[in-house]
Write a structure and sequence with these properties.
This protein is 29% helix and 34% strand. It is of the alpha+beta class. The longest helix has 30 residues.
């Protein structure tokens, strides 16, 4: 019972860019090692490989060391000799200075060579899977704005394609997640879809301003900053499309807390034309917001 309680203790997990605490969830990461490895960062991945490599050689080096004389030219009592012999065997290098000298040594070396062959094959597959995984480098504004625009209240946020290639048939979705109380008094989180003025674009290469009209049909209608914070509201945005260079579907997403919503502000315009007639995208001001005023529509 105590072991079961420990296995289901409070844990911190990462969902997208958000960290949450869970309780009662069994620790089953080792049952899905492939997914776990794909979700690691590159430093964590290579750090894990290094630890696995060192651990395997410590195990096999100890096996050789436990029976003196199992390795030719290994100095008796010098564990490092057996450890480095294990590295040479695991990597199938074999410099010729040290070699198995007994049946026991040959048996251990055989198991280590098999472990090395399987390990290198698995590592190659994992590295390929990580490199071949299609990703989109889409920059999201670090805040969203709620303002009056063209005679109505709207929610705005903007995104940019940092690769400046073409993502064709790009589609954006916007959702509101907030805590609500049912007529029966039950508290739960409800997801509301937020309608966009333009949900898809045939080509997404530079920037794109996502606009949600806050009319009487919008779940944001009549809400203010205090109400959004009280309901623990979160705006979730996702973008999908087809990257023409990688010939694969790509995805990117982020979310905004209630504190990330700026009321009565506007994004600084980042698209302008140079004296030579060329279009300039100034991403240095991508996240800048200024007070609203009578201004033309933002670039999209």
């Amino acid at each position: 019972m105590a072991a079961e309680s420990r296995s289901k203790r409070v844990r911190k997990v990462k969902v997208g860019d958000t960290h949450i605490l869970t309780h009662g969830r069994s620790h089953e990461s080792l049952r899905d090692v492939y997914h776990l490895v794909l979700t690691l960062s590159w430093p964590q991945f290579f750090g894990g490989l290094l630890l696995a490599f060192m651990f395997a050689n410590l195990v096999f080096g100890t096996a050789y060391w436990l029976l003196p004389g199992s390795v030719t030219n290994a100095r008796e009592g010098q564990f490092l000799d057996y450890f480095f012999f294990s590295i040479e065997t695991l990597a199938t290098v074999g410099y010729g200075v040290m070699s198995p000298s007994s049946l026991y040594g040959h048996v251990v070396a055989s198991f280590e060579i098999l472990t090395g062959m399987v390990g290198f094959a698995l590592t190659t597959g994992l590295v390929f899977a990580r490199f071949s995984k299609p990703t989109a480098r889409i920059l999201f504004s670090n805040r969203a704005v709620i303002r009056d625009f063209e005679g109505e209240r709207v929610l705005m946020l903007r995104i940019a394609n940092e690769r400046h290639n073409r993502i064709v048939e790009a589609t954006a979705t916007l959702s509101l997640v907030r805590a609500e109380v049912s007529p029966q008094g039950e508290s739960f989180f409800r997801i509301h879809d937020l309608k966009l003025v333009r949900q898809r674009t045939p080509v997404f290469a530079l920037t794109w301003t996502l606009i949600h009209p806050i009319d009487e049909h919008s779940p944001l209608y009549g809400t203010d900053s205090a109400q959004l914070k009280e309901s623990r509201a979160r705006i979730v945005v996702s973008v999908t499309g087809h990257d023409e260079n990688m010939a694969a579907s790509v995805y990117a997403g982020t979310d905004y807390e209630a504190e990330d919503l700026v009321f009565d502000g506007r994004f600084v315009d980042i698209l302008r034309t140079t004296p030579d007639g060329e279009r300039l995208v100034d991403l240095t001001r991508f996240h800048d917001i200024e007070p609203t005023a009578e201004e033309p529509a933002p670039s999209s």
